[in-house]
Amino acid sequence: MNTRRLVVGISGASGFIYGVRLLQLLRELDIETHLTVSRSALLTMTHETDYKLADVTALAGVTYRCDDMAAAISSGSFRSMGMIVAPCSMKTLAEIASGMSSTLISRAADVTLKERRPLVLLARETPYTLAHLRNMTAVTEMGAIVAPPVPAFYARPASLDQMIDHTLGRVLDLFGLEAGTVKRWRETEIPANAPAPAPQPA
Ligand SMILES: Cc1cc2nc3c(=O)[nH]c(=O)nc-3n(C[C@H](O)[C@H](O)[C@H](O)COP(=O)(O)O)c2cc1C
């Protein structure tokens, strides 16, 4: 069984490029990707990038239509390391929070949660309504990780690409995958022969 397999959903929040770059990084890491793109994401793709759907599906191992409820990723018996929704709209977030699965993205996310596999949502909106915040709380209570694509300025990004890669590198950290795109805070200052840090009180 190929455990190096991840489900990727691209929904219609701003930031289509996060989904594209994520697929590229996972390809470099030799992770088999199973992709589904929502209808609204096709709109953001057109408004925000010069990509065509074929360019994006070419980066994925397998692509499923977002209304294909018979797709492999709609069943928990299809094994994977987990799922990333990048970016995650407030509508898809709400569907996941309520357990309503009207698209393949929300169904695959529901499956990921019920199988107790890692689910990471790059939830994107600003500002938030109370409904957004409550839905983020609900998915967190169910075990998902809400990881909004918020840039880290301590990394001193010199470009949008660096900003995106840092965010995605931190997302891949959550799966134990080293993308090599994270400028890690003060890690390089620690000498190789430094003693192990003393255990901290709980
Ligand atoms: C250019 C554009 C940008 C959008 N940005 C956001 C956003 O940042 N967050 C969000 O929740 N919805 C955003 N939307 C609205 C969603 O696309 C819309 O709610 C849609 O129903 C989401 O469907 P999906 O979750 O199935 O992809 C945007 C729509 C467009 C056309």
Automatic annotation (TrEMBL):
<dbReference type="InterPro" id="IPR003382">
    <property type="entry name" value="Flavoprotein"/>
</dbReference>
<keyword id="KW-0288">FMN</keyword>
<dbReference type="GO" id="GO:0106141">
    <property type="term" value="F:flavin prenyltransferase activity"/>
</dbReference>
<comment type="similarity">
    <text>Belongs to the UbiX/PAD1 family.</text>
</comment>
<feature type="binding site">
    <location>
        <position position="154"/>
    </location>
    <ligand>
        <name>dimethylallyl phosphate</name>
    </ligand>
</feature>
<keyword id="KW-0637">Prenyltransferase</keyword>
<feature type="binding site">
    <location>
        <position position="38"/>
    </location>
    <ligand>
        <name>FMN</name>
    </ligand>
</feature>
<feature type="binding site">
    <location>
        <begin position="89"/>
        <end position="92"/>
    </location>
    <ligand>
        <name>FMN</name>
    </ligand>
</feature>
<comment type="function">
    <text>Flavin prenyltransferase that catalyzes the synthesis of the prenylated FMN cofactor (prenyl-FMN) for 4-hydroxy-3-polyprenylbenzoic acid decarboxylase UbiD. The prenyltransferase is metal-independent and links a dimethylallyl moiety from dimethylallyl monophosphate (DMAP) to the flavin N5 and C6 atoms of FMN.</text>
</comment>
<keyword id="KW-0808">Transferase</keyword>
<feature type="binding site">
    <location>
        <position position="124"/>
    </location>
    <ligand>
        <name>FMN</name>
    </ligand>
</feature>
<feature type="binding site">
    <location>
        <position position="170"/>
    </location>
    <ligand>
        <name>dimethylallyl phosphate</name>
    </ligand>
</feature>
<dbReference type="GO" id="GO:0016831">
    <property type="term" value="F:carboxy-lyase activity"/>
</dbReference>
<feature type="domain" description="Flavoprotein">
    <location>
        <begin position="5"/>
        <end position="174"/>
    </location>
</feature>
<keyword id="KW-0285">Flavoprotein</keyword>
<protein>
    <recommendedName>
        <fullName>Flavin prenyltransferase UbiX</fullName>
        <ecNumber>2.5.1.129</ecNumber>
    </recommendedName>
</protein>
<dbReference type="InterPro" id="IPR004507">
    <property type="entry name" value="UbiX-like"/>
</dbReference>
<feature type="binding site">
    <location>
        <begin position="12"/>
        <end position="14"/>
    </location>
    <ligand>
        <name>FMN</name>
    </ligand>
</feature>
<dbReference type="Pfam" id="PF02441">
    <property type="entry name" value="Flavoprotein"/>
</dbReference>
<dbReference type="InterPro" id="IPR036551">
    <property type="entry name" value="Flavin_trans-like"/>
</dbReference>
